[in-house]
Design a protein that fits this description.
heterodimer, A: Arc Repressor Mutant, subunit A, 3 domains, 3-stranded antiparallel β-sheet, 16 helices, 38% helix, B: 527 residues, alpha/beta, Amidase signature (AS) enzymes, 8-stranded mixed β-sheet, 17 helices
């Protein structure tokens, strides 16, 4: 039967009521090493096409691979963080297939001897909008293996940017040979209707884990983390696994969940219509939220794997592996629980903080001396808005945790009030330097010198004799107008409470 | 200032040339020019010349020679071989100089980088004359599979010079170059040496960097030196050898002291050396296909070894009889993958199929058309074999089984080397066959490598050196020496001792008897 004859979708809730969904995820992560997997070519993202290359990454005749030791270290650290066993010895293999963006027409990868295998990752799935509670799901990791990325083809002309209908194609080999780690889960069972949320939470957890390890930029939007979603349905958790589809290049957290839900609905429709799911790769369409049929997977896919004869086996020294294990950072989930407790945050506070991507920044700010509540307020409030306005992430804002900590210290020391502090922060974001420098340069400190204030108070009273009279008559609340005038005259730099005291004193003393 | 005529100059050993350069008797420019003149005299035309060279870089060679002469006149300390010319097999990439590996596929490609061995030779002051002819991508035993026409054997113009490195061997035998480089995947250095009366060494696997050597079968390929004497070969070996961080399979050991071993061996004393004759390589009961004159010269060489004090015994390596079959699974498998990159997408030949609308042509169609036109029949044969052998469901039966045989061959050699210091055999079962004779019978061609292939499977070093002319056809016969891995020096010690005795017997070198090229157009007369 043809894959294009998918009957109408089955509503998601009906589909998961009828079938048990099983998801599996293959995540490719580009390492942030300075050089490529098998050559000294640089790896800068976004460079001019075909400038980050050398004979080996172009696959020139005679060129040979040399394994990047830093990439092996990163792979092992990832494996350890995923609770994997690390291979005592493992080899690379050649995966042979022809494609213009593959310089050698084989990819040097690992086949049956991955560097890391048999691990797991506990995934915290948050409460959802339907009010279903948070829970933790253990995802089993089958393997994590090393390989090299391919180049990138772009198809010029034609309507879609796809190869079909293009006038010509260009290939950029800058990406060819960038170190990749592919992390493959075992089939994730037992998630039931919340399978999409589990898949999404797994990818998010993995992303945070890798970020914490500082082995990758893990930017899904730039392709440094890429996700393939395998999905199958079966009658019940006791049944054998059904035929799976592999949806390629699902490259955002939200899309992971959407793609899972779409495939659940689509496969349920196929099955309930009496059809059978084809084992195939499918394309994900971000704009429509649909998957479409790609290539039929069959025995015709023969990559003719054999051990890479140009490389020697990788045999990491067990003592070194133990050193790497001992030096691993605290896992993100444990860290989150610890910080939530230390900072006394509610679950909701914590979720907001995480959603804002502010955890690292707040922690750094706290480490530099700011009270947790204040640090959180700055990063999720004022700076969150600034990031929105500028269309960047918090991390990309031109302000450091150290500057935020300094700003808060000025507030706590009475040098700035809230309003002034916000102004100072604006100037910091405009590149005027540290908060203290802005305060000094712009004279924005709170004015608490009574002499300077008294002159302003007297001036305001003199300018508003009727108000002064009301105060003298006991209408103390009328003092607000004078305070406001003084604040305006001092461009907000005065301590309003002190101004009020001075106004009352001057009126009482008959000024 | 020269005291040598050009004709005399080109017949000197490389070590003698180096001595004359040091003594100021000749300049590198004169020496280089003499070789360029010799090349101009005998190498062309393609239809009837020796055709050892695919590319001659006269200008570059003379410029380099001038630099070296200037450096010498400034009193700079130079390598022993500085100023001596070398011919480079076209499988080694040379920056700015064509490197085709004998294939139409790479015609016109000019590499942007040098192979490590090319860098090393340049650093030593060797003057690159040009690039030598070879079977396409080093697949063949006759150089007839070169896309650019065959090389002729300087001993007889209608005979093959061996292969794949027939160009390098012929250049030596025709006095077009005193030194040359080769690569040996199953005998491509040793068999051409045998059939041209020259010396060639396949070092221990990993002893010479493969970086910049256009790959045929990565686990078997090994670069090595070719020359006219054992000492010259050793001198070049020490230039080419050594660890290369750009080749992960490169040995980290220091280069073996092969020059010292050759000098020691030249004294002719092999007392205490145990020599094992490999039973399965031409001894009684295993001599099918071996030419009588080859076996006769080999026996005489054994007598010389005994006379030098060596103890000669027969040893069995039973699994070498399976080596040929294993080799012709491993080699095509690796080759099918190594040659996949030649697809017209990035460099070299690009063929757009004529029967497709150019606006509709796909990358796949260009790849297929390029490979159909760019590869010769032998390359295609091996790519198809290898693709099949690696296919899902066949891997274990073919590639997997071949690797097991490889292990058995290694074990045989390990056991043999517990009894003896070196192994010997005829290098090739026959002398040079006639051009065209085996072109239509690939298996017959393959069988000629039966004695050389086992060393590649085992990764051990091997040498071929001339031991005389076969009485029936007057063509050179080679003897193969094999030593344990990393014991390359043993080849040179034993080889130099045998060479010294043979030279004494002959009253000179075998190549002194190579006919003048213009007279070498016929063959078959007994020597």
């Amino acid at each position: 039967m043809s894959t294009s004859s998918t009957p109408d979708l089955v509503a998601y809730d009906d589909a998961v009521a009828r079938f048990d969904p099983v998801v599996g995820l293959e995540v490719h992560v580009e390492l942030n090493t300075a050089t490529k997997m098998f050559s000294p070519a640089p790896t800068e993202f976004g460079a001019e096409p075909n400038t980050q290359v050398d004979p080996t990454s172009l696959g020139l005749p005679g060129s040979m691979p040399v394994l990047n030791a830093k990439a092996v270290e990163s792979a092992i650290r990832m494996g350890l963080a995923l609770n994997c066993s690390i291979a005592a010895e493992c080899r690379f293999a050649r995966k042979n297939y022809f494609y213009p963006d593959m310089p050698k027409n084989f990819q040097t990868s690992q086949y049956d001897e991955p560097i890391a295998f048999d691990g797991w990752l506990d995934v915290d799935v948050p409460a959802n909008e339907a009010g279903e509670p948070a829970f933790t799901h253990r995802v089993e990791i089958e393997r994590a293996h090393m390989e090299e990325d391919t180049g990138k083809s772009s198809h010029v002309g034609g309507a879609t940017g796809r190869i079909h209908g293009a006038e010509y194609s260009l290939v950029d080999y800058n990406r060819a040979g960038i170190p990749l780690i592919e992390i493959v889960t075992r089939p994730i069972t037992g998630a039931g209707p919340r399978v999409g949320e589990v898949a999404r939470a797994y990818v998010a957890t993995l992303r945070d884990l890798l970020k914490g390890l500082d082995v990758s930029d893990v930017k899904m939007e730039q392709g440094s983390m890429r996700c393939d979603v395998n999905l199958s349905l079966r009658d019940s958790p006791e049944s054998r696994l059904g035929t799976r589809t592999e949806t390629k290049n699902v490259n955002s957290l939200r899309s992971v969940e959407r793609a899972v839900r779409y495939e659940v609905s689509r496969q349920a429709a196929v099955l309930l219509d009496g059809g059978s799911v084809l084992q195939e790769t499918r394309h994900w369409h971000e704009d429509t939220g649909l998957t479409t049929s790609g290539r039929i997977k069959s025995d015709a896919d023969d990559y003719r794997y054999f051990p890479e004869p140009d490389l020697v086996p990788v045999a990491p020294d067990p003592a070194w592996v133990e050193e790497l294990r001992a030096a691993l950072p605290e896992p993100p989930a444990a860290r989150r629980r610890r910080l939530q407790g230390e900072w006394g945050l509610t679950d909701l506070d914590m979720r907001d903080l995480l959603n804002a991507g502010a955890l690292d920044l707040v922690e750094a700010t706290v480490v530099l001396g700011a009270p947790p509540a204040a640090a959180r307020k700055w990063w999720t409030g004022e700076l969150g808005r600034a990031a929105n306005t500028r269309g960047t992430s918090l991390e990309e804002l031109p302000v450091t945790p150290a500057q935020v900590a300094q700003l808060q210290a000025l507030v706590d020391g009475g040098k700035l009030n809230d309003k002034l502090a916000r102004q100072v922060l604006e100037h910091v974001l405009d590149g005027e330097g540290d908060p203290q420098q802005v305060v000094d340069a712009r004279g924005l400190a709170v004015v608490s010198d009574d002499g300077a204030l008294l002159a302003a108070v007297d001036e305001a009273l003199a300018a508003n004799p009727d108000v002064a009279g009301k105060i003298r008559d006991g209408k103390v609340q009328a003092a607000g107008a004078i305070v406001g005038a003084v604040m305006k005259a001092t461009r907000g730099s005065a301590d309003a409470a002190r101004v009020r005291e001075l106004v009352l004193e001057r009126v009482a003393s008959g000024a | 200032m020269t005291s040598h005529s050009a004709a005399e100059l080109v017949r000197l050993d490389a070590s003698a040339m180096a001595g004359a350069l040091r003594a100021g008797e000749v300049s590198s420019v004169e020496l280089t020019q003499a070789h360029l003149d010799r090349i101009a005299e005998v190498d062309g035309p393609v239809e009837s010349g020796v055709h050892a060279f695919l590319h001659v870089d006269a200008e570059g060679a003379l410029a380099r020679a001038r630099e070296l002469d200037a450096a010498r006149s400034r009193g700079e300390e130079l390598h022993e071989l500085a100023g001596v010319p070398v011919a480079v097999k076209d499988v080694m990439v040379t920056r700015g100089m064509p490197s085709t590996a004998g294939s139409r596929m790479l015609e016109g490609w000019v590499p942007p980088y040098d192979a490590t061995v090319v860098e090393q030779m340049r650093a030593a002051g060797l003057v690159t004359l040009g690039k030598t002819n070879m079977d396409e991508f080093a697949m063949g035993s006759s150089t007839e599979h070169s896309a650019f026409g065959p090389t002729r054997n300087p001993w007889a113009a209608d005979r093959i010079p061996g292969g794949s490195g027939g160009g390098s061997a012929a250049a030596l035998a025709a006095f077009e170059a005193p030194l040359a480089t080769g690569t040996d995947t199953g005998g491509s250095i040793r068999q051409p040496a045998a059939v041209t009366g020259t010396v060639g060494v396949k070092p221990t696997y990993g002893g010479v960097s493969r970086y910049g050597l256009i790959a045929l079968a990565s686990s078997l390929d090994q670069g090595g030196p070719c020359a006219r004497t054992v000492l010259d070969t050793a001198l070049l070996h020490e230039v080419m050898g050594g660890h290369d961080p750009r080749d992960s399979t490169s040995l980290t050991d220091p280069v073996p002291a092969v020059v010292a071993a050759a000098r020691e061996g030249a004294r002719g004393d092999l007392t205490g050396v145990r020599v094992g004759v490999v039973r399965e390589m031409g001894r009684a009961g295993h001599d099918e296909g071996y030419q009588a004159g080859v076996l006769a010269r080999f026996e005489e060489a054994l007598d010389h070894l005994r006379a030098a004090g060596a103890e000669v015994v027969e040893v069995g390596c039973p699994n070498v009889e399976h080596a040929l079959g294993a080799y012709y699974l491993i080699l095509p498998s690796e080759a099918s993958s190594n040659l996949a990159r030649y697809d017209g997408m990035r460099y070299g030949l690009r063929v757009v199929p004529a029967d497709v609308d150019p606006a509709e042509v796909t990358a796949e169609q260009v790849m297929a058309a390029t490979r159909a036109e760019g590869f010769g029949p032998e390359a295609k044969r091996r790519i198809i074999l290898g693709t099949y052998a690696l296919s899902s469901g066949y891997y274990d039966a073919y590639y997997g089984s071949a690797q097991k045989i490889r292990t058995l061959v290694q074990r045989d050699f390990d056991a043999a080397f517990e009894q003896v210091d070196v192994l010997v055999s005829p290098t090739a079962p026959t002398t040079a066959f006639r051009l065209g004779e085996k072109l239509d019978d690939p298996l017959a061609m393959y069988r000629g490598d039966v004695a050389t292939i086992p060393a590649n499977l085992a990764g051990i070093p091997g040498m071929s050196l001339p031991v005389g002319l076969a009485p029936e056809d007057g063509l050179p016969v080679g003897l193969q020496l094999l030593a344990p891995a990393r014991e390359d020096a043993r080849l040179y010690r034993v080889g130099a001792a045998l060479e010294a005795r043979l030279h004494a017997q002959w009253g000179g070198k075998l190549l002194d008897r190579v006919p003048d090229w213009t007279a070498a157009s016929t063959t078959g007369a007994p020597a």
